[in-house]
Every structure is written in C-alpha cells, then in structure tokens.
Task: structure prediction
Amino acid sequence: MNTDPNLLWSPTDPNLLWAPTAARAEQSDVAAFLRMLDRTRGLRFADYAELWRWSTTEPNAFWAAVWEYYGLDAVSAYDTVLDDPRMPGARWFPGARINFAERCLARTPDERTALIEVSESGPPVETSWRQLRRDVGALAASLRAMGVQPGDCVAGFLPNTAEAVVALLAAAAVGAVWTVCSPEFGTAGVTARLRQAEPKVLVAADGYRYAGKEFDRRSAVAEILDELPTVRHLIAVDHLTGSWAGTGTGSGGPGRAGVAWHSWSDAVADEAELRFADVPFDHPLWILWSSGTTGPPKGMVQGHGGIVVELLKALGLGADVRPDDRCLFHTSTAWMLWNFMVGCLLHGATLVLYDGSPTHPDVNGVWRVAEVSRATMVGVGASYLTAGESADAHPASAYDLSGVRSVLQTGSSLPDSTWRWVYDRVADDVWLQSICGGTDVCSVLAGGSALLPVRVGRIQCPALGVALAAWDRDGRPVEDRQGELVVTAPLPSMPLYFLGDPDGERYRSSYFDTYPGVWRHGDWISVADDLSVVVAGRSDATLNRLGVRMGSAELYAVVEALPEIADSLVVGVESPDGTYSMPLFVVPASGADVDDRLKARVAGAIKQRLSPRHVPDAIVPVAAVPRTLTGKKLEVPVKRILQGAPVAEVRAEGTISHPEMLAWFADFAAGTGSPEPGSPEPGSPESGSPESG
Result:
C-alpha cells in the first residue's frame, strides 16, 4: 500500500490499497478540467461526488465543457448540445461536423512514436506519427480508388497489429463504416456478422500467432469471401512471413471470382494527401458486435462525434491518459476494448499492440510486453490477474515495471485477494482501475478517477456524465444494496441504431423494455454512499434462491479461492413446474479430484462465507467452462440449455471457447450424461483465445 505522507486519505483503512498524493491528483487531467470550470464558468466543486452530480444533472453544461476543454470548439460549431434527451433517440450536437480519424491524427509531433508492435518473439517495432499519417493517407486513397464512398462498409479479419489501426483510421478518413473480426473466430462467427454489414472491401490477414504457434487462416479467408457477395476487393495482409508472398495485385487470390485482390504493400505504396471526409456528428463510424451467445449477434452502430467526445472524456477525465503514455491493452480486435484502446490516439498517446498469448512464454507474458515496450498503462482482463495469483507469480521480481503507473482491469469482477495480489506482486504504488462498461457504449459506465482512493473489491466511482444508479425491479432507486444497473440519461456513444432493425424494435427491447425510457444495462450492482460501485454479475444470471438474490460473481469469489478449483460456473434454473435448481459446475485444478470431501469443502465455504441459501443443489465436475472470446462465462446460454433450449439456438459458432461443452450441458440436462470432453488446442479457431484483456 502507498504510505506516502502526502496522501489525501488516511491509510488506516485495511481495505485501502492506494490513494493519490496531492501532487499526483493536481497533475491529473480531471484536476485541469476542474480548474477550467472555475476559470471560465465560476464553477467550483468540493469533491468528485459534487462534480459527478453536476455532470449528470446538467448534461448540456457538462458536455459543452468537455467539447471546449478538448479543443473541439476550434474544430466545429454546433447548434445545441442535446437536442432531444429521450432514450432511445437522443440527438447530440446537431450541426457539428467531426471526423474520428482526423481527431486521432490531428496534433502530435511527427517524430514521436505512435504505435509499438510487440510479438511473442523478436524486438518491438515502432511506427512514428509521421509514418502512421502517411500510411493512413495512402490506404484511404486506395479505398477511394476501389470505389469506397462515405457510408460504405470496410471490414477487417485482422489480429491486433498496426495494419488494423491503419485500416480503421483510413476507413474513417473516407467516411466509410469500419467493422472487424479477429482471425481466431471460426468462419461461421465471422460471416454471421459481416453478412449483416455488407462490406465492399475486406482487409484480411493470412493468420495469427498464439502461444508460440502460427495459425494459417488463408482457407478461412476464402470461405468468408464465398459467403460475402458484397465484397469486391480483398486487401491481403502478409502477417505470417511469406505466406502470401508472390501473389501480386490483381492476380488470382483466395476466394470466389469477381473479387479483386490487392496486397497490403501495394495498397499503401503510393503517398497521397491525407484527406478526411467532412461528416456530421452522427455519421456512422463503426459497427461493434454483441457476443451472439443468445441469438444472432447484434450489430451496434456508433457515430464519429459520439465516440470522439465519449473517449476524450472517458480516457482523459477518467483513466487520465496523457500524450506521454504508452498504452498496452491485451485485447483482440474482437473486443470493444480494442476500439477503446485506439481512442488513446485522441490524446496523443502511444499504442502498444501485442499479437500473442498473455501467458507466453509463461503466466507473466503481459508483464514481459510491458517491460520491453516501457508501457505506462496496462489493460488486462480479470482472469489474467487471477491466473497470475493462482500461479503464485511475482511479475515485479521478474520484470522492470517501474514505468507502469496504472493497471486497467475489466472483463469481469475481481476477487478481493487478487486486488491485494496486484499491490503485493505487481507494484505497490500502481493505480488499479477496475472498470465496468460495455460494447453497447464502447466506454466506461463506472471506473477510475485520479482524485479518489482504491479500495478492495470496489470500482472507484460512476464515470462523469453517466447518470448511473441501482434500481429494484419496480424502478425504485436502492442505496448500498444490489439492484439493476440503469442509466437514466443518454450518453453520446450509445448506438445510433442496430443493423437490420429498421423500426428500432430490437434496440428498444435490448435496453428499454424493463424501464421505459431508461437504459437497463444488464448488470447487478450496488452503489455505496461514497459512490463506489460493486458489480455482482449479470442481472439476467442472478441467483434467486428462496427469494434471496445474489450475483454469481460473489459465489465465484468464494469457490475459486479454493486451491482445488480452477474455474466454475453456476446457474439458477427455473423450471415450468415452478421448481428451482442451482447446479455448480467446477473445473478441478491439476491433480485434484472432485470427490465427496472436496464437494463438502465447497459447500461449507459457500455456507460460511456467502449464504446457506446459496449452497448448490449439485456440484458437478466439468472439463472446461465455456466463455465468450472476451472471457465472460456463458451463464445465460447454459441456463437456457438446462431449461431445454436446443444447443443450436444458443451456440454462436466460432465466437466462444470450448463450444463442445454446450453439447455436454445438453446431455447433462437430458440426464444422459457424457464423458468429460477433451479441450481443443488453446488459441485455435475451434477453441477461441483465452480472455483478451
């Protein structure tokens, strides 16, 4: 724990892990924002809570101040801030014209480093801002030559590399709509998404590297092209050295006839003026996708202006990203965290792009990348940190992490012991930012503030501008106890619309059916008097035993603290006859047996540490827990299978790890049983990758 005598908080609280010094708080972006509010508007706030309340009760004033603080008033005027506050359908900054790519590339000195690519082997490769601008300009010109116009779609099938960043920015510069799938996706998962987007151009890598192995995906590219009749051009990225070498522009490439083939090197060969489409605030920027585990994946369209102002605010006033930061987020292009990371360019920061396994060559793989890239901010998933704790890893003794000032953690809730492990084994003076947000807004709903302390098990605060609350099922606010996470006022980055949803019915039913006019996010949270937040799991996977509701994350924290348990999944299953069952599925740690003795230990731990009412009806060993590619456990799909839904209705081909387990759960539900299935090779397209940060 930080014991600096200049702390703004007394270190006597045993749950206090970190607090900013007065000097560190004063140097933060949010402190500079407060000074601007005082200087230009005469507004003064006693603490973060006052600032947050103003930001949510006076949205026009707050977002106008954000616009001014980040210099957007010099970019475009606007008619009003919020023309219509209704949800869905709120209209932000009508009259403004803004281009995401232009804002990302606007203001940083040419010779500074914009991108650092790190692989599992080999030295880091740096790209300057000058080179990034040059490559974006060249690719944008090539896209225009291919007939791409504003509103057309450009799609990617790419790992987390410089080409993916360049392609996104080039598409945005043209005014095209960008979307991307990671190459570890199975072809069915890719085509289920991209068919909806109807891309004109596909930018595809020949494969990717993971855990010391190369995965050739050229045949998958051919299959994808066969399923995408709208694609007229393929830009082929030779990521696996030499695999597409010798196949020149216009020659017979992979896939169906009628697709013009271009190599990446040719597409960026000719220098061209970097031009940006002059688009309105709500012009579509990109399509992000839901996990697709409870039906066809939803294509969520977000706009240039909404993403610009939201990520300026979230990454600046929240995460405190600065121009001298080097931001390493272990993620794949399949997760919104990748888009969120690219937003760091809006602040002039350097992106560290890692294409590989987080546990290669060992569990400290991400920390190795942090050392070689000299990262100052490291973004990871909860499961990566818990894996380090379970392995008794000591990253700080293995690598020089002295430059890391912040660790950003997301994906799922973090066990209390893992919070302490970060400060014991990673860095004792690091700012651990646990964040809760989602693909739906491509941002943070609750997260960090450089003005507040970090305490075990608690997200620091609701994000500025986010009118977050916990509500009961009747729509009444609840204080310091669990309720539905709701947002009662619109945010600029909420989706403009869903693909294939012309009347908005699917959009409304996804967020607004439960509380009309209020966004229901689907998380089960509590908000304390000091505004700190605890996320207890997905509200649609809440355990409701004998009238006592509890988030699944609370049970996992107890069960997975046992050394014999490597992973677990719990679901509460309501049956048509009115009965309720709650099985717990556990993955035993290496060498452990799920015998009667261990089952008794698990049940006893739940009874003593959690609730006697939430002792499971059965404790069942399984080979693996299926997850989305972003690491979320498939609680709702498994629940539906146990209630009798066919696997085909809930399975999202190519987008989950261990898809074979869904058939196992169907056999379990039918009472037929089956042998514990084997596990596909980690990182293969059939298994998906582990949590991507």
